[in-house]
Amino acid sequence: MNDISQGILAVIDLHGVTRLVMGAAADKHYSKKMKTPKSKKAIRVMEKADPFFKIWFVCKGVLICTREDLAKISAFPWSPAPSSIPGSISGVSDQNSALSHQQGSHEERANSTLPVNCSRRYLQRCNQFTASVRSQSQQDNMNTPKAVDLICPWDGIQNDEPSDSRHILWTAHDDLASIPGSTNDTEEAKQRQGVEAMLIRERQENEHLRSQIDEIYNKLQEAEKRKIENEQRIIQLEDSTKELEDKLLGVQPLIQSQKVENDNLQCKLDDALNELDNMQAQQITVHNNLSSNEFSFDEIMVATRGFAEDLKIAEGNFGIVYRGLLRNTLVAMKVLHWDGMQRRSKFHREVAIQNMIRHPNFVTLIGTCPVAYTLVYEYLPNGSLEDRLAYSNNTLPLPWQARTRIIGEICSGLIFLHSNQPHPVVHGDLKLENILLDSNLVSKISNFKCTSPYMDSELISTAEVTTQTDVHSFGIIIMRFLTGWQSFNISNRVEEEIQSGNLHSVIDSSAGEWPFVQANQLAHLGLRCIELSRMKCADLMTDVWQVIKPMMQVAAMSASPLSFASASADQNVPSYFMCPIFQEIMRDPHIAADGFTYEAEAIRGWFSSGHDTSPMTNLKLANKELVPNRALRSAILEWFPNLSQ
Fold first, then answer.
1. What is the DSSP letter of 538?
2. Which residues are 627's β-sheet partners?
3. What would the DSSP string read from start to end of 376-425?
């Protein structure tokens, strides 16, 4: 039970317990000076238990005190009348007058103590009790009276006032005690004990029934309350269901039109993917035909003109790269340094990696020359990203659209590497010098330093290289693209500018007018990628790619001929046609919870980067739900009809 002391009393009543040993207090409160119970439960049990109930109170194995039993501390003050004292036997007339007097006094006391609403059956039972005692004593006052058939005054009568019943019992005992020679002390004690036992059982039954009735009544009240609440909830649900049904009927036409539009877009996407698959299949076929070739040392010598200096493209710790024409194909040949067994190990490891990896953003291996330890790759004419950021050979700076796309290409390539089964592949030396550009400025990752850390025991013994190593390098590349700075201490400088609110001052102006919201997202992504903690470091698939993918799409639209952001300056384009984030004409406008309309990809990218505030008001949004602004989209299409293409 919730009330432990009440539960103890209930168990006592249920099983008729007469003796109990219980704790006087918790052991930690034990004291040699303790003489009385300190526990609230012990005190409540002692106060509420029947007076004759025997209790021993102990604490830490020591008897603290006992509760005297009924004979010592009885709650019923028995005080027989003087006429019941042995030796004061008088005549029958005296007895009758005494009985008459006792009967009168008994009725007066009963009438004065019984409640108004008490049944008169109490008085009738009391009169019967007194009459039976009187008739028994008159049979033979010279002999020891026989046992009297006591009639309990409250037997069979429902009453919730045990105190009144006790008063009637005391009156009956007074009447019995006033009859001279009616019984000896032993017989009187037995009769008293019998009456007391009956009273106790009756009171216990009444209390038990009362508690059961109260419990059932409380349960009924609670059930009725729940019933009313459920009925109200059902009414509310019915109203909500009706409202939702009405709304659903209203949006059905929009759903149908959206479905038709999605089907059309899906058809176009399928066609584009099929065309891309065909192109990639043709490219892979060509590369496979070339890679199946094993070139001879003489072919390598002819292609490099005996490793001429003017054909040298790059040189590093790994070897020297030459440009040359091999079987009528312009290729790049990497000749590993002549350093014995290490050269052979690196040669076979890189061949194994390149044969395992086929991805549009990795340099393709065309063939090999085992004799000369030479790897033949496709030739990439636009050099490395490091050269482009340094404006080497008077090259033009990369615009922000191209930088955004290249960041996405590098991210895609790393995700492909790290998703390799059964173990991820690690590049291990990701930097701008090892990322090359083809004739269309498509990035290609090259110069792997290692493979999976589970496969290269030599590398494991020298340094632990994991996928997080590549993610950290990727974060540095993002910040270098964003700022144009060198990598030394770049993360601390960018973080300081972000905290001071001066991020715009570090954005590379040579990249063009980079949308500030997008630049801000990239800066935060870069800082998350360089986190040393694995728990805080960004995940390429779930964190980075979800933000960069919509950025790439926006950058592609901005760089394509269908972008009207610059061409519309002379056409007085309404300001509400422009996306507040990308500052370009919206193609798929959506309304956010702040009431402003954004390009769908732009606001989704804002949410994906971890923001829950409005880009316009900087206040927390109630939700991240978006609603298509079809009216605005129709107005934009009327202004620019060819935008729908």
1. P
2. 591
3. EEE--TT-BHHHHHTTGGGPPPPPHHHHHHHHHHHHHHHHHHHT-SSS--
Domain 561-644 falls under CATH 2.170.190.11:
no
Q: List the 627-628 sheet strands across, edge first.
A: 597-599, 589-591, 627-628
Report d(CA 114, CA 221) in Å as an integer.
33
What 8-state DSSP symbol labels residue 536?
T
Structure tokens at 315: 């040189």
Measure the CA–CA gap between 433 and 399, rounded to whole angstroms.
Answer: 19
Contact 164, 113 (CB under 8 A): yes
Enzyme catalytic residues: 429
Give me the average pLDDT of each 10-residue run along the chain (645 residues): 90 90 90 88 89 88 78 40 36 41 43 41 54 54 42 42 46 49 69 87 90 91 90 90 84 83 83 70 51 81 92 85 89 81 76 82 90 90 89 85 93 91 86 89 84 40 73 92 87 88 88 87 90 82 88 73 40 76 83 90 83 83 91 83 52
Q: What is the pLDDT of residue 340?
A: 56
* 435: three-class secondary structure by DSSP: strand
Q: Is 456 helix (H, G, I), strand (E, B) or coil?
A: coil
Domain definitions of the chain by residue range = 4-73, 85-262, 293-379, 382-556, 561-644
User: For the chain, how far is it from start to end, CA to CA, in angstroms?
Assistant: 75
If residue 255 lies in a helix (H) or strand (E), which one and from where to where?
helix 185-291
**Distance between CA 584 and CA 401 in Å, rounded?**
13
Cα separation, 451 vs 417, in Å, equals 10
Alpha-carbon span 55 to 73, nearest angstrom: 13
Alpha-carbon gap, residue 644 to 631, rounded angstroms: 15
- Phi and psi of 116, rounded to 5°? -65, -40
Expressed in percent and rounded to 5, the helix, strand and coil fractions of the chain are 55, 10, 35
pLDDT at site 70: 36
Structure-token match 């054909």, residue found: 311
Q: What is the largest CA-CA distance in the chain?
A: 158
Give the pLDDT score at 2. Answer: 87
142 token code pair: 């010279």
Strand, coil or helix: what is 103?
helix
* The predicted structure's pLDDT at residue 127: 58
CATH 3.30.200.20 corresponds to the domain 293-379: yes
State CA 421 to chain mean position distance.
31
Give the model's pLDDT for residue 186.
82
Three-class DSSP labels, 290-349:
HHCCECCHHHHHHHCCCCCHHHEEEECCCEEEEEEEECCEEEEEEEECCCCHHHHHHHHH
The residue among 582, 476, 468 whose CA lies nearest residue 525 is 476
pLDDT given for residue 302 in this prediction: 92
- Residues 38/46, Cβ–Cβ less than 8 Å: no
- Are 173 and 88 spatial neighbours (Cβ–Cβ below 8 Å)? no
Distance, CA of 3 to CA of 630 (rounded, Å): 64
Tokens of 365: 């291996």
CATH number among 3.40.190.170, 3.40.50.300, 1.10.10.10, 1.10.510.10, domain 382-556: 1.10.510.10
C-alpha torsion angle, residues 297, 301, 304, 305 (rounded to 10): -170
Over its C-alpha atoms, the chain yields an Rg (Å, rounded) of 50
Tokens 């052991």 belong to residue: 27
Two structure tokens written together for 143: 């002999």
How far is residue 148 from each of residues 89, 144, 194, measured CA to CA in Å? 19, 12, 12
